[in-house]
């Protein structure tokens, strides 16, 4: 896991997510004129194979993501923005501007509803990276009280060791089994995901907590005693790097 960051934090609960790598499934939507910018729209009707955007779905409101080029950004309001002339969230992802519209929610209202906090301590580039990590489709996710999730960090590494083990760690398989597979996943996809959660050798995850955002590719381990055993034998690889 990478270390916690103050750019995006979730003080209310700990949210763990296992992401979907579904490709570009939204249809390109043009404003109907060659003189106007074209853009891509993703919403709740977009085919994502059963994956969801957890923080957007948590609002209980309609939402849309409008993706346009940084060289030719989309103009607002338009027919996809619920009458809003400013996005709820905006960040840059590569050469694209990602504008998120949640029906009737300002940025402040969205942050209050989701428990997220934003700041610019490390600049807009890092903040955009943190947001792009969260605002993507996930096949398994969940929100838990802080006292139900234990996170231990490797705090005694040298600078060189941190570079080597960045993103490494262990995660209990019980934690994976507590993640919720969206109701929209097909029976075949649900069976596939459940099988992967039971037998996978490595996962990619994003963890939001009061300390910030952690992400990485830990190896799942079954049972607390097994986790402690591996921790004693391979102390340098079993806890996330801070």
Annotation keywords:
single chain, disordered N terminus, 242 residues, five-stranded antiparallel sheet, disordered C terminus, 2 domains
Which strands sit side by side, in order, in the main sheet? 3-4-5-7-6
**How much of the residues is beta strand, in percent?**
25-35%
Mean pLDDT: 79
Run of helices and strands: EEEEHEEEHEHEHEHHEEEH
Count of DSSP-assigned helices: 7
The tally of strands reads 13
**What is the makeup of the main sheet?**
5 strands, antiparallel
Shape: globular
What is the terminal separation in angstroms?
Answer: 7 Å
Q: Report the structural category.
A: alpha+beta
Low confidence ranges: 1-13, 20-35, 230-242
Q: What is the radius of gyration computed over CA atoms, rounded to a whole number of angstroms? A: 19 Å
Q: List the domain count as a whole number.
A: 2
Portion of residues within helices: 10-25%
What does the model show?
The radius of gyration is 19 Å and the shape is globular. It folds into two domains: 22-114, no CATH class; 140-233, no CATH class. The protein is of the alpha+beta class and 242 residues long. The protein has a five-stranded antiparallel beta sheet with strand order 3-4-5-7-6. The protein has a four-stranded antiparallel beta sheet with strand order 9-2-11-12, covered by helices on one side. The chain has helices at residues 54-57, 107-114, 123-134, 159-165, 173-178, 187-199, 224-233, and strands spanning 8-9, 14-19, 28-30, 38-43, 63-69, 89-93, 96-102, 117-118, 138-144, 170-172, 205-209, 212-216, 219-221. Helices cover 25% and strands 25% of the residues.
């Amino acid at each position: 896991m990478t270390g916690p960051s103050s750019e995006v934090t979730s003080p209310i609960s700990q949210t763990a997510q296992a992401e979907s790598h579904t490709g570009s499934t939204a249809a390109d939507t043009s404003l109907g004129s060659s003189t106007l910018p074209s853009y891509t729209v993703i919403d709740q009707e977009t085919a994502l194979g059963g994956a969801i955007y957890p923080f957007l779905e948590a609002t209980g409101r309609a939402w849309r993501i409008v993706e346009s080029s940084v060289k030719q950004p989309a103009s607002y309001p338009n027919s996809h923005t619920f009458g809003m002339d400013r996005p709820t969230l905006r960040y840059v992802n590569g050469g694209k501007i990602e504008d998120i519209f949640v029906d009737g929610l300002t940025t402040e209202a969205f942050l209050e509803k989701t428990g997220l906090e934003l700041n610019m301590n490390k600049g807009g580039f890092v903040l955009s990276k943190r947001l792009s990590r969260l605002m993507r489709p996930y096949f398994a996710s969940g929100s838990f009280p802080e006292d139900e999730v234990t996170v231990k960090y490797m705090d005694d590494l040298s600078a060189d060791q941190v570079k080597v083990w960045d993103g490494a760690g262990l995660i209990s398989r019980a934690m994976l089994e507590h993640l919720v597979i969206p109701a929209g996943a097909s029976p075949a996809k649900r069976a596939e995901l459940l099988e992967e959660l039971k037998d996978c050798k490595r996962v990619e995850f994003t963890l939001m907590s009061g300390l910030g955002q952690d992400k990485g590719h830990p190896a799942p381990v079954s049972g607390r005693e097994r986790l402690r055993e591996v921790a004693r034998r391979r102390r340098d690889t079993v806890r996330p790097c801070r």
